[in-house]
Amino acid sequence: MATAQLLQGTLDLLILRVLALGPLHGLGIADRIAQVTRGALQIKAGSLFPALYRLEADGLVSGSWGESQSGRRAKLYTLTKEGRKHLAEEKKSWARASLAVQQVLEM
Amino acid sequence: MSLFSRGRAWIRSIRHRDHLDADLHRELSDWVEELAARYEAGGATPDAARRRALIETGGLESVKEAVRDRRAGAWLDTIARDVRSAWRMWRAHPWLTGTAIVSLALGIGANTAVFSVTNALFLRSAPVSDPGTLVAIYSTSTSNPGWHQTSFKNYVDLREALPVEVLAYAPIPVGLSTAGSPAEDVPTELVSGNYFTLLGVRAAVGRVFALSAAEDKVTDKHPEIVISDALWKRRFGARADVVNQIVQLNARSFTIVGVAPPAFVGLDVLRAVDVWVPASNPLILTGVTNFFFGNRSIGMFDVVARTTAPIGPQQLSAMLQAQASRLGQTFTQDNKGLRFATRPFAQARMNPAQRDTWIRAAGLLTVVVGLVLLIACANVANLLFGRSAARRRELAIRLAIGATRRQLVRQLLIESLLLSSGGAVVGLGMAWGMIYVLSAVRPAFVPRSFEVPIEWTTLLFTGAIAFVIAPICGLLPALRASRVNVVDGLKGGEAAVQRVGRSDLSLAVLIAQSTLATVAVILASLFVSSLRRAEDINLGFDAGHVAIVSFDLGMLRYDNTKGPAFVRRVNDRLREVPGIISSAVASHVLLDGTGFASKIKLAGHEDAEALSIEAGAVGLEYFRTMKIPVISGRGFQESDGAAVSEFGWAIVNRTMAEQLWPGADPIGRRFQVLGIQERYVVVGVVADALYDTLGERRRPYFYIYYDQSPGLKKLTLHVLTAGDPHQMLQTIQREIQAVDPNLPVVNVRTMSDVLNAAMWVPRTGAALLLLFGAIALSLAVVGIYGVTAFFVRQRRREIGIRRALGASAANVVWLLVRRTLAPTAVGFLLGVVASSVGGRLVASLLIGVSPTDPKSLATAVLALAAAAGAASVLPAAAAMRVDIVPILRRE
User: What is this model's ipTM?
Assistant: First the structure.
């Protein structure tokens, strides 16, 4: 599924983070994640779409039909206000958690 | 995320489900197209690019499924989808569905019916406030163990001595009449003045009476009654002005002060009370009940205490023991050896001794209907097995397009849940019908408590059964089916079916089913032979030609001279009527439970604890009328009552003579009845009879002479007729009215009617068991047929080849016998063992039949063997007809 194991629940965070830079369609999100992680994380449709639809149902992202960067018809996802707030909170707690894990590992 | 917005998203996702599905489809196609375009740009051919894109994506359908599963409210969605597809599945196979639903409905219906009666008798709590704190108190003693009622005098002393409140109630015979209408027997209870207040029962109309212990003792001060809702509606047209209306009870005036709420019909579940009279009115009592009321040695009242902190049941018990020894010392004569036993009120809503028998009977019925349900489940499991074998292809396709094993199992479980729900609905209808029929044919003597409406506890119970049995019948087939091999399944044909590995499971089902059916049928046959035994049991008297008519001389206030004179005149007139051979009054009716308990002490043993022996007072020609043979000594004579003697004359039965004076001549022996001045002298011995129930053991009993005990007012005239006693009932009533036109007569019937009433419980029980046994047997037949037929279908090729190679018909039948009848036989044996163990538990319900009665066992096994044989005839015939050629050609 992915070259690196993805921690449970972190996919949501990644999607939100990527969308914070601007609206993207599904494949665009997958591409951007692969690009940023230098190919370490290849997100497949079977993981991406369930997560996207869940985020949309939760009101953190909103989708609307438009055109992708390559000019194709595509459903573009935008981060909502609530999503932005959620991302900020998650970032903080992620930082705390990763710091804690780091400390334990370097003990 | 807040609960609110989550809920909103949920509703949105349900509302826009179709819209979302379309969106998802478009989006996914776009994804694939874009990927393909990318690969094409990289130099792949269009076809290869598209294929690679699809593989990368991982299957459109499975992505869609994953999205759906993670969507808010997804579970509801999938379940709704599964239910819809299950519904389509069952609709497509009406025969299979019908068989399964009827099987389950029979099982569920029987269980529901039995449960609702059990619930009404044992589980439902009384409509009183806080029943958990109520404790029932019984009198008992070493020489007279058991759970007995308490005398009113002992109750009054208890009520004064105990720091908690105590109430008492007792049924009494009462004729109720309103101005201008004849008297009618109404179920009445004499209750302590605190009865309603302590129970927390408020009047629906008017008020209840509330009297202190002191007021209870002031005789005839409060002629007030509370009536039941049923009586109010039946006799008073539910009019609000019933309050303050005056009615006559046993020819005394009482004022109706209130109507009890509809749900409250007294505390004893076997007795629906219509009238409650305060115990401060003992003058309402006539004859023997009056004697009981005033007698400290004879228990008449059920006593209930309400425990309040800090006095719990344990403290109460200790206090009661102290009171018992105090009462024993103060009233040595009456209370020697007295102890009090307590029981939680919930277990005391009928006499504990009686309750044990009822519980045993209810338990037996519950076990049998449980067996029926299990057999039905086994049948349905079998059907589902067959079904899932036939559905291999469908299941293989589902797996191939990305369904998980869990999804398959869920789907199959929902299918069986739908089936069991269908069974529950139909079964509820059947239960309702059964209860309706039972209450419609309920004779007048069967308590109203058997008319049980289907209430919400019953619905809950039925629903729970449906939920529990769905996995029982569905889980194994579902697990099996989900282990389908995609390739084999898609290939189809017999190979796939055979790989189901069905045989070991259907073997287990066969064994279980025949075991259960054997137990059910053996129990049914035991009770049927018990019934047959009961039908020709030696009653000790002849019920064939006796008409009986009851009246209560107390209702018209006959005194001790007027009473016997009336009886004499009625007897004289009857003797003149052609077709009447003899007649006599008695204070009891045999097998009607109307004898009275007395406590006696033998002459020379005055210091010993009194013996409890039932007795009855009878008129001159009683033994002749009832054809009870006099074994030694003599019967009563006219002269016995003529002179006032210092002795009363008694005639004892054979068992009493043998137990009290073993090896000696009982004639001339003396004993004393507590509470009665005279001593009794034995003048004769008569044969034993059955006094209270058909199943009772031989027990001591004695008769005293009516003319010497004219205080007895509630009498039954027994008339021996030459022809059919029913023909004489009119005449007898006319002759009584000729002597006193105002005396109401009740219970006009014959001794055979009494016998029929006594037979009602064994007959109904045997009929129910027979019905359930028959259902169990026919379900098992269907099951055996199913397995055998399936076996033949499965092995058509093998059988055909065997036949072609020259196997004889006997060989083929042997194959069938080995595979299907052998497990059935194992089941039979297990069933026989199980029922001989279980039979011991119900031995006390059987009349004159041992639980291992060989005849009953043989009948049952014969019935089962015949059924199993019949079930395999058709499949065997089918096996004979197997023709190898078309099978080989098809392959």
Answer: 0.82
**Tokens standing for B16?**
């826009």
d(CA B159, CA B217): 12
CATH fold of A10-105: Arc Repressor Mutant, subunit A (1.10.10)
3-state secondary structure of B174: coil
Name the residue among B31, B58, B70 with its Cβ closest to that of A26.
B31
Reported as a single tens digit per residue, the pLDDT across B663-703 is 899 999 999 888 777 789 999 999 999 998 887 888 899 99
Residue B335: both structure tokens together: 């209370």
Query: Apex CA A11: angle with CA A8 and CA A12, to 5°?
Result: 105
Domain boundaries, chain B: 3-72, 131-353, 355-536+761-890, 546-722
For chain B, how many residues are written?
Answer: 891
Query: DSSP characters for A26-69?
Result: HHHHHHHHHHHTTTS----HHHHHHHHHHHHHTTSEEEEEEE-T
CA distance B54 to B35: 9
For B594-674, strand residue ranges (E) read 596-602, 611-618, 630-633, 647-653, 670-673
Count A/B contacts: CB-CB distance under 8 Å.
Answer: 71
Distance from first CA to last CA of chain A, Å, rounded? Answer: 32
Inter-residue contact A65 to A23 (CB < 8 Å)? no
Confidence grade of residue B720 (pLDDT, cut at 50, 70, 90): very high
Measured between alpha carbons, how far is A64 from A76 in angstroms, rounded to an integer? 5
Q: Is cis: bond before B262, omega within 30 of 0?
A: no
Query: How is B527-588 classified by DSSP, letter by letter?
Result: HHHHHHHHHT---SS--TTEEEEEEEGGGGT--TTHHHHHHHHHHHHHHHSTTEEEEEEES-
CA distance B725 to B547: 5
The alpha-helical segments, DSSP class H, found in B613-704 are 622-626, 638-642, 654-660
Whole-Å CA distances, B788 to B97, B587, B803, B870, B871? 20, 64, 18, 11, 8
**For residues B466 and B108, what is the distance between their CA atoms, to the nearest angstrom?**
8
Contacts of B38 (CB under 8 A, 6+ apart): B49
Length of chain A, please? 107
Residues on A contacting B at a C-beta cutoff of 8 Å: 25-27, 44-46, 49-51, 53-54, 57-59, 63, 68, 70, 72-75, 86
Nearest-Cα distance to chain B for A25, in Å, is 9
How do residues B764-822 score in pLDDT, each as one tens digit?
A: 888 888 888 888 888 888 888 877 887 787 777 788 888 888 888 788 888 877 777 78
pLDDT digits (tens, 9 = 90+) for B284-316: 776 656 767 888 877 889 999 999 888 888 899
Which candidate, A75, A96, A92, A73, places its Cα nearest to that of A19? A75
DSSP codes, B426-452: HHHHHHHHHHHHHHHS--TTS-GGG--
B386 vs A70: CA distance, rounded Å: 56
Q: What is the reported pTM?
A: 0.71
Among B760, B188, B120, CA closest to B445: B760
Enumerate residue ranges in chain A where pLDDT < 70: 1-9
Whether A45 sits inside 8 A of B26 (CB atoms) is no
Facing A53 at nearest CB: one of B1, B58, B71: B71
Q: Which amino acid type is present at position B389? A: A
Cβ-in-10-Å burial (0-12, 13-18, 19+) of B510 comes to buried
What's the CA gap between B44 and B386, in Å, rounded? Answer: 49
Contact between chains at A50 and B12 (C-beta distance less than 8 A): no
Under a CB-based contact definition with an 8 Å cutoff, are residues B648 and B679 in contact?
Answer: yes
* Chain A contact set for B31 (CB, 8 A): 26-27, 45
Rounded to 10 degrees, what is the CA torsion of B423, B429, B434, B436?
A: 170
C-alpha to C-alpha distance for B867 and B518, rounded to whole angstroms: 11
